[in-house]
């Protein structure tokens, strides 16, 4: 089994997190510039991760690593979920999505939420491995911290000493990765890659 994978994401923040978690385990190749972003039309995180991985395998002939993440807020019935990246609309910025979330949560006492990441490895022969990482936490009433990205400034993970992911990322990437959904998903995927005989 090859240990060389093309990384589906072109999001530099995500790519840096994944590379840090998988350092020394696999060789990651950046997504070629001529491969367009894949439209995430799946109904689940697994669907979207698979769409991205298959597109990269077909474009490059190499095995691919892809992921998809959703923030599930209990008071919002699990939203934004699979629509987390475009919660405030297509082309929304991180700040737009955070602002919409805080507006939706205004006055809400129950602020429980969880982040879920699906990490998927796909080979040209159609074989794949899937791993999931989940972290429970709460949504703050205002952003805190300047590290991380996405919803990190408003998500306090359980076990994070009351700090948001953005505050943990300011301290060090390792502090965030130890608790994060993406870190958990890719550590589990790394374990599967080491033990799989595909």
Give your account of this protein's structure.
By secondary structure, this protein is of the alpha/beta class. It has one domain: Maf protein (Alpha-Beta Complex), CATH 3.90.950.10. It is built from six helices and seven strands, in the order E-H-E-H-E-E-H-E-E-E-H-H-H. The chain has helices at residues 12-22, 45-60, 94-104, 165-171, 173-179, 181-195; strands spanning 4-7, 27-29, 64-73, 80-81, 112-122, 128-139, 155-157. Strands 1, 2, 3, 4, 5, 6 and 7 form a seven-stranded mixed beta sheet that branches. Helix 1 links the parallel strand 1 and strand 2. The termini are close together.
Secondary structure layout:
Blueprint: E1 4-7, H1 12-22, E2 27-29, H2 45-60, E3 64-73, E4 80-81, H3 94-104, E5 112-122, E6 128-139, E7 155-157, H4 165-171, H5 173-179, H6 181-195
Brief overview, please?
The chain has 198 residues and is α/β, with parallel strands linked by helices. The chain contains six helices and seven strands.
N-to-C SSE string, H for helix and E for strand: EHEHEEHEEEHHH
The amount of helix comes to 25-40%
Globally, the shape reads globular
> Which stretches of 5+ consecutive residues score pLDDT under 50?
none
Distance between the termini: 6 Å
What fraction of the residues are assigned to beta strands by DSSP?
15-25%
The CATH architecture would be: Alpha-Beta Complex
| Derived structural class | alpha/beta
Question: Which sheet architecture does the biggest sheet show?
Answer: 7 strands, mixed
């Amino acid at each position: 089994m090859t240990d060389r994978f093309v990384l589906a994401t072109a999001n530099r923040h995500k790519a840096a997190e994944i590379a840090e978690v998988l350092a020394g385990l696999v060789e990651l190749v950046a997504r070629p510039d001529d491969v367009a972003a894949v439209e995430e039309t799946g109904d689940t995180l697994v669907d979207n991760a698979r769409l991205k991985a298959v597109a990269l395998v077909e474009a490059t002939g190499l095995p691919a690593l892809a992921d998809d993440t959703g923030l599930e807020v209990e008071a919002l019935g699990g939203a934004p979920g699979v629509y987390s990246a475009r919660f405030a609309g297509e082309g929304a910025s991180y700040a737009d999505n955070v602002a919409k979330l805080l507006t939706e949560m205004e006055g809400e006492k129950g602020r429980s939420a969880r982040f879920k990441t699906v990490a998927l490895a796909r080979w040209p022969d159609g074989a794949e491995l899937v791993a999931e990482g989940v972290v429970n936490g709460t949504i703050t009433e205002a952003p805190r911290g300047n590290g991380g990205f996405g919803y990190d400034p408003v998500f306090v993970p359980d076990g994070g000493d009351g700090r948001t992911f953005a505050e943990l990322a300011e301290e060090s990437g390792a502090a965030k990765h130890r608790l994060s959904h993406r870190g958990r998903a890719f550590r589990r995927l790394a374990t599967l890659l080491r033990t799989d005989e595909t």
